[in-house]
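User: Okay, second chain of the day. Same drill as before: sequence in, structure tokens out.
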Amino acid sequence: MKIYESSQIYKYLKFICDIIKMFDYDSAKKENIPCNLCGEDNFLVLATRSKNNLDVQTCLCRNCGLIYINPRMTKGEYDNYYKYYYRIDRSNIKSKEEAGEEKNFENARKFGNDLATRLAQYLNSGLTVDIGSSIGGILYGLREIIPGLELLGVEPSVSESNHANLKGIKTINALFEDFATKPIGQASNILCVQTFNHLLDPRMFLEWSYKNLKSGGNLIIAVKNFRHQVRKAGFIEAGVQIDHPYMFAPETLKFFVEAVGFKVLYLDVDEYKNRKELWVQRQEGMHRGHIRIVAEKPENVSAGSNQVIMVPRVYRKLRLQLFRPYVKLYYFVFHSSRFGRVRKFFGV
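Assistant: Same drill. Structure tokens below.
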């Protein structure tokens, strides 16, 4: 027994077991928050459980249609979660081990290649910052296609930021909310790929991006489409997880970006693409079920110049589309195997 106890393998396994044992969402400190987009505190409760059956309340703002967790873990709890527990928790949710870092890096590199190819006209040479850059694969892939990019990643996971630095991608280990207090100079591009719904203050991120971009610089966001996610599964809880404090539909994402002062140049939504389009997209390295948006910082316009106004039409539309019977019906018609032949016949 002493031989095993003294081995590095034993210590590593014990460390992993301690992490799993230590993370307890129910006992984590929580806070109540208003809507991050419009500031209102008037919401409809969409769900009270998460995908993995945690006690999580998901809300739809009655004023602007933003979807968010409320109450949610505090910043300190999220910081601790991302630093040590995130990957293990995600593996538990998926009921399988996630791919190793090298495999994840290669997948992200391929995605970065495809993103650079699709959005080449919007990627300016110069400083390119990726918020939530993980192991650096996306930035690495971008630079393979566009060599003139100066890369900087920001990643809260210790192991993933270390891996990125070893790959030659300069990466700062920090939550964005802490990193945002440091000057970075004027960036040509700011990316937030599969991270925007992880941020605790997306409005602050948008305002920070506006401030730190050059005039004519571009913001590129790729984020899961919550509506598409729940319709494809047939139930609301399928799109709810504690690492997504905010959730977006294309309408609210575009409105949010424009409300800060950006001009939307490009909007790509997977939601209504047919199976062949999505298959080709996946083969090229691009994720499915997402929203991709490119927004420019226009010249001589101040951040926040577009005031947030009430948009009840967005709320009413999402309230209907996320009504549980409607979600279930949509799933049966467009995603269930029962209607597979009918969809194939019509090419859907």
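Residues 48 and 108 are 33 Å apart (CA to CA).

User: Thanks, on to the next one.
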